[in-house]
Prior knowledge:
Layout: E1 10-12, E2 18-25, E3 32-38, E4 44-46, H1 49-54, H2 58-77
Bound molecules: zinc ion.
Residues 33, 46, 48, 50-51, 57, 59-60 line the site of zinc ion.
Amino acid sequence: MSSSLELVGDKLPDNAQYKNRFEIPSASSNRLYVIAQNKKTNQWSCSCPGWIRHRKCKHLTSLQPLLAQHDKEQKRLG
Ligand SMILES: [Zn+2]
């Protein structure tokens, strides 16, 4: 079964620091932002200016239920 997060964005390959990278469309422009989960801390982050400045943004806030579900799915897979 594919992750529910794949319904909101395209999955990108992992890099050195981040896993579960997804490209998500901005609501207010035609830009794309990347959300990703830190490999060490499992914290989610976003590439948008709001997150960079405040460590909090509407993307991650609105996706929170899906992120939690994604974490649960991963735990179940072991
Ligand atoms: Zn964001």
